[in-house]
Amino acid sequence: MRGFLIIGNKAFTKPFRLNDLPGAGRIDILCRCVAQSLFISHGIRKDVEVYLLLLGEPDPPKAIKIVGKTVKRMSPDERNIAGHLRKALGVKVNKNWKEVSSGVYVARKCLKDLLEELSAYYEIYYLREDGKDIRDLAKEMENPLFVLGDHIGVKKEDEEIVISYAREIISVSKLSLQADQCIVIVHYELDRLQI
Amino acid sequence: MRGFLIIGNKAFTKPFRLNDLPGAGRIDILCRCVAQSLFISHGIRKDVEVYLLLLGEPDPPKAIKIVGKTVKRMSPDERNIAGHLRKALGVKVNKNWKEVSSGVYVARKCLKDLLEELSAYYEIYYLREDGKDIRDLAKEMENPLFVLGDHIGVKKEDEEIVISYAREIISVSKLSLQADQCIVIVHYELDRLQI
After folding, report:
1. CA–CA separation, A74 vs B105, rounded Å?
2. Burial letters for B115-128: b for 16+ Cβ neighbours within 10 Å, e otherwise?
3. Of A100, A159, A174, B94, which has fewest CB within 10 angstroms of its CB?
């Protein structure tokens, strides 16, 4: 399994307008991260789970989980994925995952709760520009889950939590890339070792 | 310089609805290719040019050029990029590039005309799954331009034209990836050699 957790610092936690995804706390970034985590050409990576942590107004925190093995009727364009997220944000939440549509879940979870849950079955890696080169570490990874920030990055207090759960801080480029680009590179380096 | 040429086999050649980019001959794919070619976190790659060849109805072929050095008011979300393309498709075209907005050009060009023009200052590489591993060839590349197909790939007759101009056929993965993912990997391998 491979997992990705993307932190949307300002991502709206209520249904938003599909015609202005950047204006919804940069939901567009989260959509692209979902697409790059799950999709290959004409198919979905069945062995991937994506977790989004939405911390924007008016009702944070909310977490959304998308499971490659069971997700249906999702396509890689931003608007389609945004439609799934929008639907999940319209549902009443509690601490337990609630399935909104096939393979898409929503819950009330903070970063610490989420990482506590995920670290039971994933090795947590934190992606940051100054980390160790993924190319040196990829071969040691088993069931890795990668934590990434959005355009704002990861706030200091959140970073402390992530690091407390992380096996390593890793880097995919000396350039500052967009989160979805980092996800493509992570897949690429891991794929090269497996196929 | 780095260049990318993406062939949109069915991409509409007239202004389309921004609310249905997949329905416009998969303009969404072209938008993601533009985004991944040009954008890094909080910035644009000034040394990149993107060329789109649109072959869909009702008025093919049309080519759009986007120049990283001069493009303005573009952001990486699909809808924003689609707005730029839409504007370009509303302009009367002839064989010469016409600047529609800063850094965005449109012209009536077929694949052969476009490659003839581009091969004067770029080394052409054709991206195909069964090509040579980019990791072995990246260090030899100078001013490379990469030709990619959309979800349909590159039609046989077009492929013959591309290969006649190509220095090599290269591959970025044994998996069949989406065109925009291939672009991220190309940048990644070239970046690693330069920074």
Report:
1. 33
2. bebbeeebbbbbbb
3. B94
- How many CB pairs below 8 Å do chains A and B form together? 96
Paired strand residues for A171: A133
- Stretch 61-80 of chain A: residues touching chain B, C-beta under 8 Å: 75-80
Which CATH number among 3.30.565.10, 3.40.1280.10, 2.40.30.170, 3.40.50.720 corresponds to the domain B2-194?
3.40.1280.10
Collect all residues of chain A within an 8 Å Cβ-Cβ radius of residue B28. Answer: 76-78
Residue A24 is given by DSSP the state: G
DSSP state of A135: H
Q: Return d(Cα A103, Cα A98) in angstroms, integer.
A: 10
The domain limits of chain A are 2-194
Cα-based distances in Å from A76 to A126, A136, B89: 25, 30, 24
pTM over 0.95: yes
CA separation for the pair B5, B113 (Å, rounded) = 13
ipTM above 0.95, yes or no: yes
Q: Which of A75, A78, A148 should be substituted to probe chain B, the one whose Cβ sees the most B Cβ atoms within 10 Å?
A: A78
The interaxial angle of helices A27-38 and A179-194, nearest 10 deg, is: 10
Residue A70 carries which DSSP code?
T
Residues of A in contact with B76 (CB under 8 A): 28, 32, 178
The Cα of B131 is separated from the nearest Cα of chain A by a number of Å equal to 15
